[in-house]
Design a protein that fits this description.
Elements: E1 2-7, H1 10-25, E2 31-36, E3 40-43, H2 56-61, E4 65-68, E5 75-78, E6 82-88, H3 91-94, H4 98-115, E7 121-122, E8 129-131, E9 134-144, E10 147-155, H5 178-182, H6 188-204
Parallel strand pairs: 1-2, 3-4
Antiparallel strand pairs: 2-6, 3-5, 6-10, 7-8, 8-9, 9-10
């Protein structure tokens, strides 16, 4: 099942994910939740305050909220033009381990970029999707009773300058986007359509 949230406040999207998690725990279908967020910085369980490169009051003055969340990973940033992929998947029902799931999710991002003619790779040592030395997608997940939430954020047309507010994933890394690599804006509806199709392949096990 696929749910499209459009441009949705991060806290509301997290509430929606948690409701979907409870549905899946109760035996409901695995679900893909796709959305974009207004500018927000999220701090995962391994985040350090030092990875915020501006004081919180300055971020608030810029209209950028900061939220601590129950996912793995460090600090990341969401903004309009970034496609956020939240698979809510029962790992136990599918017989997948956490590492296998993370590799599948990473491969979904690699395959998405391949469809746009971009050679991307994953990296077990630095989780995410990379084009050369630049990072195009960040991954951080949570799991409740073997059901996943949170997921992967793919930079498409978002303002990359906002990443100067943080040390992305705690790394000194250059972020990039599909739009920047291709030299033109990318149709978000087409990105969404391709992700929906790849999610079906992902669920069938052909994305790894």
């Amino acid at each position: 099942m696929v749910v499209s949230g459009g441009l949705i406040d991060y806290a509301r999207a997290l509430e929606r994910q948690r409701a979907l998690v409870e549905d899946v725990i109760a035996g409901g279908p695995d679900t893909l939740f796709l959305c974009e967020h207004p500018a927000v910085i999220t701090l995962g369980r391994r985040s350090h305050e030092a990875h915020l490169l501006r004081p919180r009051k300055d971020l608030a003055a810029q209209g950028v909220s900061v939220i601590s969340v129950d996912r793995g990973g460090d600090v990341t940033l969401h903004a309009p033009g970034q496609m956020v992929i939240y698979p809510v998947v029962n790992l136990k029902r599918r017989g997948w381990g956490l590492g296998e799931y993370l590799r599948k999710l990473e491969q979904l991002g690699v395959d998405l970029l391949k469809g746009f003619g971009i050679l991307a790779t994953g990296d077990d040592g630095r989780r995410g999707v990379w084009v050369g030395k630049e990072k195009v997608a960040s991954i951080g997940i949570g799991v409740r009773r073997w059901v996943t939430y949170h997921g992967m954020a793919v930079n498409v047309n978002n303002d990359l300058g906002l990443f100067r507010l943080i040390r992305p994933c705690g790394l000194d890394v250059q972020m990039t986007s599909l739009g920047r690599i291709l030299g033109k804006p990318v149709d978000m509806a087409e990105v969404r359509r391709r992700i929906e199709q790849q999610f079906k392949d992902f669920m069938m096990g052909s994305s790894i």
